[in-house]
Design a protein that fits this description.
mainly alpha
């Protein structure tokens, strides 16, 4: 699975508001980023961005459990992370 597909899977789980599926999608994507060699420089950069977004989402917590969107900093980080995932996932649709 490539970066765009992982990003799309994470967003789909987020949109379903399913914390378990969301966490599994994050774990799967992070594991993939850490073990697979990207095909080309652009995919490597996209993989680095995806990994950074996942780590940031984990740092503010997963939905339904530890996310504190009422905190301004967490809300901004969450929004920025979701926007980056949207951007990364658009490659899969193209």
């Amino acid at each position: 699975m490539n970066v765009a597909q992982h990003a799309g899977k994470i967003l789909a789980a987020w949109n379903r508001a399913d914390p378990v599926t969301f966490e599994l999608a994050l774990e799967s994507a992070l594991h993939s980023c850490r073990r697979s060699a990207p095909l080309g420089g652009l995919e490597y950069e996209r993989q680095e961005v995806l990994q950074s977004v996942i780590e940031r989402l984990w740092s503010i917590g997963a939905p339904g459990s530890r996310v504190r969107p009422e905190l301004p900093a967490a809300s901004r980080s969450l929004h920025a992370g979701l926007m980056l995932l949207e951007h990364l996932s658009q490659r899969a649709a193209a």
